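To the wet lab folks,

You asked to see what we're planning to order before we commit. Fair enough. Below is the target structure as tokens, and below that is the sequence we designed to fit it. If anything looks off to you, flag it before the synthesis order goes out.
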């Protein structure tokens, strides 16, 4: 099925140079105006009153074609046919946009493989953004998250950073710039159907001229996979998070007629099963007494997966209707279910978040549930016209026999990664401290106890472009809530308080997260420029409240008496809590709403609220002493630095070797040719500004790359960061691989975009490749390189201890002494709210990798997270294990890249962290890992059970996919991933015989000679093994048959030089035993082993062999 939007285009072909035709333009208000610039002298030979018989396109053939089409919008067919009958464009292409006749100017040009139209017509016909350079040589089109760059008269385009060939280039015709419409539409993933014989093009038209029958599925023949999701899914009906994959089509009509297009998908986490559905339907009704008689979605669940003849107590039938705020379940079992419906382009969407507690079951990886989706279609009001199913039949509401299957996959969906374990299952937790100040509720938030830094960033409905943060405090009488809203457009002009700019505070006093409000639950709204306070049930007794204007916006402050909530406070008490912000930018009703934790239904249910925890600690002002380390490391001479400008090109040492498509910008005075980006008043017009040596290289084409050979211990890459910049993959010696993101909200030239780890002094190769990815906030894929700086040998060996109490403390972090075992004069507490940070100033003798050992305490009962920043840039999130008590201290090691001289290392409670830890000190030491290797001819018999004390692995026992490993142990040696595009085969007759008796999935094997192999130069195998501060030894058994294999091993932190070895066997099979000893300078590192075929003595059959590995 195709999308609902219909654009039918019928184009006239220019018969000879200089001819001109009719063209439609826009009056700027969404209506289209016709222009006719044709030379009527060209029609002297025509009878203008008899176009049906003498036109280029037969009018009756056009009408017959249209009447044979199937349109989702039933009015299109007759309406278009009527307009064809009335129009006088039988010599030209007719254009229909949503069933309305339009004309274009100048005429589209038929180039056989594409159709050329003006940039203005691309804007109108595809609803795209089009920007043309002042010299009309470069054109940029944006539509559907697709960015296309065309260069006039060039058949190569850049599409989202990739080079794409075109059949027809952008070009001038009769001195007017025209663009290839078909190419642009297809790259933007817009349906494009061209019927040349009758001069009709259908763009994004919801038609099905050649329908194919849909087979009737057997019960349970349909399987939908639900991937895991981390992060928040906004239950707003828009179904627009990146994690969604709508792949189940409800196309099986089980009763009446249903001409809709319905797609659904599923996600899950430990708290909810999420269902999202989009229905494309041009006729929507909600006017019946029974929800199933209106446009709606039915969701069926057989949670015990028994495909029974009736519904069990944990089976469900939910119905969510179009434009319906309610939710139906056949037995009214809707407790805790979050749900929403929202209009979308061409129809409507629905989303449900069904708590597993609703069914009293616990989800596990691989669990299968009976499942079905139905769509009820009501096209004319009254009762529905029909129903379509994904898998089952019209009896789904009676029994679960015909349901399909929903499988819970352990794999994480795109847009989320495996989350760090959190101590609470709810969307968010904020810890509030007792106030150490006398509170004056005036809206100014001036008291030292306030820390207003928790962001409200989750948009639950509409749009919200404000910056909003809140904070909380408590004492024995009140709960205090303060918020700051930075908003340049503020209004208080609506009848309903929630439609004006304001802050909403939600409280679930008995902390039961239900689908209704209890007597002690509250929804307060305090609006901008409003002296009153709203509460949904008028429970405002004793509440103190105020607002005040601040620079760039306004702030609000509430003091809510505990007796208003029916509570007596105590340290450790938890209650449900949330804060929202309403944004009204234009007066009248609000544009949108954002929440800290919950959903747009917070005013109806408390189920999605976050948690507020009362801390026993007292808040106070921040301590900001001058940072001073306990000892200062002795400086060593700085390494020599070699600067290589981007214009130094070649294949030798210290030369840039460019490959793919690179543009070169240079100011006047240099003789080199250059390509420039001619857009004015945007990012590209300033690309050369402040460039080193007044020149720069850049690209936006995927897989374009440069590489450079150099000698030294460290390399820095300088270039541009800015709002149009993308991502690149940086590789050192084909082993150490890193992704860099050059996006920044502000453009910065001549800045460091990559700083390598310190490695052994010697010759290395850096490769930088544009990988076609970009930050979601970036508008393009640009990567620019200005110069490199290469550091010669220089290894720092200093060690220094830095006390936390002497560091810079911000965001509520403060010095304390109420626990034992700390060093120095005290330790730092106060990591209760986001923004708390301890910033150390440390000295590095030379640029390179250093181990930072953080001494911390955590006795909160669960692991906690904070983030580490170096020189203002976030490096990673740290997980700090739970300890016996707050008097117990542990050390967390991290390898950090520091610059020569002073650096800052900050440990911060950042967004996404859980905080609640104490910090004592850090010890900074130059990083030093070890990695060495040796090789010998393999013994003929290997006992893996004896060799692999930690872990072992074997490949190829039964077939090329067989992978056996040590049982009853945590896996250390990974299965291989294939390098290159070769085919991996089973190798049956290795001279080395392997034995084991503690394996899985095969418990034992005796003298097996099987292995796996791959042929083709550049193909091979890659393995990974965890590395840490404990030394490990790997025995690796690899070989070659009439070939030469190359082994490369590298530590992920780059703290030791890589190891390289070879297996050279020109006359037959040769097997080697490699012994690899390794130790990283910190935990949570890896070694990567790559074994590739470097050369083949037998071009047809030469291969390399991977057989076994043992770790001890």
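Sequence we intend to order:
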């Amino acid at each position: 099925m195709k999308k609902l939007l219909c654009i039918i285009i019928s184009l006239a072909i220019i018969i000879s140079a200089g001819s001109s035709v009719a063209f439609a333009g826009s009056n700027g208000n969404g209506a289209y105006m016709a222009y006719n610039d044709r030379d009527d002298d060209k029609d002297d030979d025509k009878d203008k009153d008899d176009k049906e018989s003498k036109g280029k396109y037969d009018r009756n053939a056009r009408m017959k074609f249209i009447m044979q089409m199937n349109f989702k919008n039933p009015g299109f067919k007759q309406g278009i046919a009527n307009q064809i009958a009335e129009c006088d464009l039988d010599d030209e292409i007719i254009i229909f946009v949503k069933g309305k006749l339009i004309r274009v100017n100048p005429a589209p040009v038929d180039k056989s493989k594409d159709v050329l139209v003006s940039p203005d017509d691309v804007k109108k016909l595809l609803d795209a953004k089009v920007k043309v350079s002042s010299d009309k040589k470069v054109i940029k089109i944006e539509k559907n998250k697709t960015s296309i760059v065309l260069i006039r008269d060039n058949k190569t385009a850049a599409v989202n950073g990739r080079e794409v060939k075109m059949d027809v280039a952008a070009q001038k015709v009769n001195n007017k710039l025209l663009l290839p419409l078909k190419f642009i539409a297809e790259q933007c993933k817009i349906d494009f159907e061209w019927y040349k014989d009758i001069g009709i093009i259908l763009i994004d038209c919801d038609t099905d001229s050649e329908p194919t029958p849909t087979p009737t599925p057997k019960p349970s023949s349909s399987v939908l996979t639900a991937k895991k999701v981390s992060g928040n899914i906004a239950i707003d009906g828009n179904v627009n998070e990146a994690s969604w994959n709508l792949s189940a089509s409800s196309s099986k009509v089980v009763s009446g007629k249903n001409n809709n297009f319905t797609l659904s998908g599923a996600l899950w986490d430990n708290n909810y099963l999420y269902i999202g559905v989009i229905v494309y339907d041009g006729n929507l009704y909600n006017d019946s007494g029974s929800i199933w008689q209106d446009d709606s979605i039915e969701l069926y669940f057989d949670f015990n997966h028994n495909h029974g003849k009736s519904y069990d107590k944990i089976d469900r039938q939910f119905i969510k209707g179009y434009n319906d705020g309610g939710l139906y379940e056949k037995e009214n079992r809707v407790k805790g279910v979050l749900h929403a419906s929202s209009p979308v382009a061409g129809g409507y969407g629905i989303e449900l978040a069904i708590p597993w507690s609703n069914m009293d079951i616990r989800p596990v990886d691989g669990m299968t549930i009976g499942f079905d989706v139905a769509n009820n279609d009501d096209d004319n009001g009254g009762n529905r016209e029909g129903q379509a199913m994904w898998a089952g039949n019209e009896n789904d509401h009676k029994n679960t026999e015909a349901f399909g299957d929903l499988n819970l996959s352990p794999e994480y969906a795109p847009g989320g990664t495996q989350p760090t374990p959190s101590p609470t299952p709810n969307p968010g937790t904020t810890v509030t401290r007792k106030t150490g100040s006398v509170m004056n509720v005036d809206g100014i938030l001036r008291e030292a106890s306030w820390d207003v830094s928790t962001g409200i960033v989750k948009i639950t409905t509409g749009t919200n472009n404000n910056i909003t943060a809140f904070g909380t405090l408590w004492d024995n009488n009140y709960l205090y809530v303060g918020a700051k809203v930075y908003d340049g457009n503020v209004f208080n002009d609506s009848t309903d308080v929630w439609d004006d700019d304001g802050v909403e505070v939600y409280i679930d006093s008995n902390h039961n997260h239900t689908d209704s409000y209890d007597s002690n639950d509250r929804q307060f709204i305090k609006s901008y420029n409003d002296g009153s306070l709203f509460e949904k049930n008028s429970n405002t007794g004793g509440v103190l409240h105020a607002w005040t204007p601040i620079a760039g916006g306004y702030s609000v402050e509430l003091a809510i008496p505990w007796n208003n909530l029916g509570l007596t406070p105590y340290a450790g008490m938890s209650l449900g809590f949330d804060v929202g912000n309403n944004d009204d930018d234009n007066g009248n009703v609000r544009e949108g709403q954002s929440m800290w934790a919950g959903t747009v239904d917070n005013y109806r249910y408390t189920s999605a609220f976050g948690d507020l925890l009362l801390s026993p600690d007292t808040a106070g002002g921040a301590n900001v002493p001058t940072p001073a380390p306990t000892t200062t490391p002795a400086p060593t001479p700085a390494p020599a630095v070699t600067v290589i400008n981007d214009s130094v090109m070649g294949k030798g040492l210290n030369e840039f070797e460019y490959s793919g498509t690179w543009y070169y910008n240079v100011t006047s005075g240099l003789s080199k040719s250059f390509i420039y980006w001619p857009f004015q008043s945007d990012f590209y017009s300033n690309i050369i500004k402040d460039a080193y040596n007044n020149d720069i290289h850049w690209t936006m084409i995927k897989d374009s790359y440069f590489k450079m050979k150099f000698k030294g211990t460290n390399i820095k890459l300088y270039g541009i960061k800015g709002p149009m910049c993308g991502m690149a993959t940086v590789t050192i010696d084909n082993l150490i691989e890193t992704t860099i993101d050059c996006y920044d909200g502000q453009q910065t030239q001549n800045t460091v975009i990559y700083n390598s780890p310190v490695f052994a002094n010697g010759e290395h190769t850096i490769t930088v490749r544009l990988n076609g990815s970009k930050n979601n906030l970036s508008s393009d894929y640009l990567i620019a390189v200005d110069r490199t700086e290469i550091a010669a040998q220089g290894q720092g060996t200093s060690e220094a201890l830095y006390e936390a109490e002497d560091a810079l403390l911000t965001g509520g972090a403060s010095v304390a002494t109420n626990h034992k075992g700390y060093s120095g004069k005290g330790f730092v507490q106060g990591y209760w709210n986001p923004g708390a940070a301890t910033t150390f100033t440390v000295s590095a003798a030379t640029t390179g990798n250093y181990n930072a050992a953080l001494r911390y305490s955590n006795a909160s009962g669960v692991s906690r997270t904070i983030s580490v920043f170096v020189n203002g840039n976030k490096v990673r999130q740290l997980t700090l294990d739970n300890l016996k008590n707050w008097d117990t201290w542990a050390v967390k090691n991290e390898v950090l890249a520091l610059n020569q001289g002073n650096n800052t290392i900050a440990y911060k409670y950042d967004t996404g962290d859980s905080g609640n830890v104490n910090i004592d000190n850090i010890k900074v030491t130059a990083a030093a890992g070890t990695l060495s290797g040796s090789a010998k001819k393999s013994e003929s018999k290997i006992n893996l059970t004896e060799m692999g004390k930690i872990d072992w692995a074997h490949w190829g026992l039964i077939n090329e996919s067989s992978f056996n490993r040590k049982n009853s142990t945590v896996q250390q040696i990974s299965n291989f991933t294939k390098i290159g595009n070769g085919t991996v085969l089973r190798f049956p007759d290795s001279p080395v015989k392997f034995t084991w008796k503690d394996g899985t999935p095969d418990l034992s094997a005796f003298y097996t000679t099987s292995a796996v192999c791959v042929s083709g130069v550049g193909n091979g195998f890659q393995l990974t093994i965890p590395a840490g501060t404990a030394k490990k030894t790997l025995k690796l058994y690899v070989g070659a048959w009439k070939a030469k294999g190359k082994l490369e091993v590298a530590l992920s932190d780059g703290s030791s030089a890589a190891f390289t070895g070879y297996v050279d066997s020109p006359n037959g099979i040769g097997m080697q035993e490699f012994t690899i000893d390794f130790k990283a300078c910190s935990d949570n590192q890896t070694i990567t082993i790559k074994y590739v075929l470097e050369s083949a003595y037998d071009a047809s059959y030469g291969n390399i062999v991977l057989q076994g590995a043992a770790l001890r």
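Structural context that might help your review: The chain is about 5% helix and 45% strand. The helical segments are 51-54, 59-68, 74-86, 119-126, 181-187, 356-359, 944-947.

Thanks,
Computational group
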